[in-house]
Amino acid sequence: MSRQGNRRPENPKISRELFVLTYGALVAQLCKDYEHDEDVNKSLETMGHSIGIRLVEDFLARSAVKKCRSYSETIEIIAQVAFKMYLGITPTVTCNSPARNEFSLILEKNPLMDFVEELPAGRSSLCYCSLLCGAIRGALEMIHLDAEVTFIQDALKGDDVTEIGIMFLKKTESKKHKRNK
Amino acid sequence: MTSTEVRPTPSTELRTRTTTEVRPTKRTSTAFPPSLSAGPTMAARSGERRLLLQRLPARKDGAAWARAGNPVGKGLPSGAGAGRGVASRVSSGGSGSLSLLRGVKGPRLAMGIFSVFVVNKAGGLVYQLEHYAPRAETEKTFSFPLELVLRPHDERLLVAFGQRDGIRVGHAVLAINGAEVSGRFTADGKDVLEYLANPAHYPVSIRFGRPRLSSNEKLMLASMFHSLFAIGSQLSPEPGSSGIEMLETDTFKLHCFQTLTGIKFVVLADPRQSGIDALLRKIYEIYSDFALKNPFYSLEMPIRCELFDQNLKLALEVAEKAGPFGPGL
């Protein structure tokens, strides 16, 4: 497929079903490969991480957002621009504890889990959407913000909504410009 | 330090500009009147040589700018071309001279983009493309004694004095009697200076020209620029400045764009070329598409993706011909 000049089609539509099916097949295969849920979770998270470090550049190139000046700004951008751009949903942001830089993203509906009712027996601690967590963590790492991303609530485990918790660790600076006396 | 890219002329000033995050000056080069960005008029004129008229901002003391008229056309963007005088500008030297080329009005020519560099977070060169390198080479036959003064510099023999005809100071010895020299030795392995000191070898035909940068030199220059970029942000009087965004000399302009992730895209272009800001954003998009989405490309490593090359060259050509990218392209 050749690209005509520099006119890039704006987001050529691929079927969402295909994407959801692909993700489902991925998780199912990982479950077959690994016995323990923690291994599956870890694999998903690592895969998500390598997606996140590349996705962030695509996001920055296409959305032209300016440098965020605070953690809450960063979270807002993630929720309102990034999630919208890639998954088509806009999670709500709540602030758990600004002093310790903890935030939550609450997803009412998660396209990845549209067709999943509940976790199979014996896989009760599987975090189905670990890939999302890994992606967020990878993306934040590339803009020099270390964060821990975990699931606080998971719709597949009986909660109402899916809640992703993001806790920012100490900000890593790329430039050492603290030499000004 | 090798400085073969910036030719030492009487009026060379290395001007750097660092801007804060909030840019106070609006760059007029991207807000081009629509009539000037039309393709057909550009194509019709691209082959002509004519004076490039520039309207310069009024000097503070009311005097007029003195500027040597330069016949320009395709193929003469850099000072290496024989017979083209480098623009000598009488300038006030203060901050007023920084925005000289901002107010370019009048028809724009399809001038060149010389090269593109991509530098990773650590300062290593990840990608380099020489799109257009004006290389003027002159070959002449000389008789003993040689009037030019040659001096070894960094594994090459450069002309130090005795500029004549097309041979300028800074040019390197490229070939002797048709055989390319490698560094300071001839093709047979003899030292060039000794060879030229022996009257028995004359008359000899020597080819001079601007030396090409080796890939090691490019690596070194990229990491040097990376450091200067960081220093630029510290030198700036405004707090919270970005690094060097543009470096302007008489013969080229270096534009740099650093992404939030630390990758730098550096474009060297003719000073009259506009639309480089949009081009840098476009290169960022191309990088995020063809380099990053390639699963076999590891981050921070040299980019060896054919699609990236192709699309980048396409984008450069579009930028040269049509100027700034429109919002829909």
Automatic annotation (TrEMBL), chain A:
**Does the UniProt entry include the keyword Endoplasmic reticulum?**
yes
Instruction: Give me the Gene Ontology terms describing cellular component.
Output: cis-Golgi network membrane; cytosol; endoplasmic reticulum; TRAPP complex
- What InterPro entries does UniProt report for this protein, alphabetically? Bet3 (IPR016721), NO_sig/Golgi_transp_ligand-bd (IPR024096), TRAPP_component (IPR007194)
Entry-linked CDD domains: TRAPPC3_bet3
Primary location group:
endoplasmic reticulum
In the record, the note on similarity to other proteins reads:
Belongs to the TRAPP small subunits family. BET3 subfamily.
What exactly does this protein do? May play a role in vesicular transport from endoplasmic reticulum to Golgi.
Q: What is this protein called?
A: Trafficking protein particle complex subunit
Q: Which gene encodes it?
A: TRAPPC3L
From TrEMBL, chain B:
> SUPFAM superfamilies from the xrefs?
SNARE-like (SSF64356)
Keywords, A to Z? Answer: Cell membrane, Endoplasmic reticulum, ER-Golgi transport, Golgi apparatus, Membrane, Postsynaptic cell membrane, Synapse, Transport
Its GO CC terms? Answer: dendrite; endoplasmic reticulum; Golgi membrane; Golgi stack; postsynaptic density membrane; presynaptic active zone; synaptic vesicle; TRAPP complex
Asked whether the keyword Endoplasmic reticulum is assigned, the reply is: yes
A biological process term (GO) from this entry: endoplasmic reticulum to Golgi vesicle-mediated transport
Q: Does the keyword Endoplasmic reticulum apply?
A: yes
User: Where does the protein end up?
Assistant: Endoplasmic reticulum; Golgi apparatus membrane; Postsynaptic cell membrane; Vesicle
Q: Name one Pfam family in it.
A: Sybindin
UniProt cross-references to InterPro entries, sorted A to Z? Longin-like_dom_sf (IPR011012), TRAPPC (IPR007233)
Q: What ranges does the record list as Basic and acidic residues composition bias? A: 14-24
**Where are stretches of biased composition, namely Low complexity?**
85-97
Where do the record's region annotations for Disordered lie? 1-44, 64-97
What transmembrane ranges does the database entry give?
Answer: none
Q: Which family does it belong to?
A: Belongs to the TRAPP small subunits family. TRAPPC4 subfamily.
> According to its UniProt entry, what is the function of this protein?
Core component of the TRAPP complexes which has a function of guanine nucleotide exchange factor activity for Rab1 GTPase. Plays a role in vesicular transport from endoplasmic reticulum to Golgi and autophagy. May play a role in dendrite postsynaptic membrane trafficking.
Question: Subunit arrangement?
Answer: Component of the multisubunit TRAPP (transport protein particle) complex, which includes at least TRAPPC2, TRAPPC2L, TRAPPC3, TRAPPC3L, TRAPPC4, TRAPPC5, TRAPPC8, TRAPPC9, TRAPPC10, TRAPPC11 and TRAPPC12. Interacts with SDC2.
Q: What is this protein called?
A: Trafficking protein particle complex subunit 4
Q: What organism is listed for this UniProt entry?
A: Anolis carolinensis
Show the taxonomic lineage. Answer: Eukaryota, Metazoa, Chordata, Craniata, Vertebrata
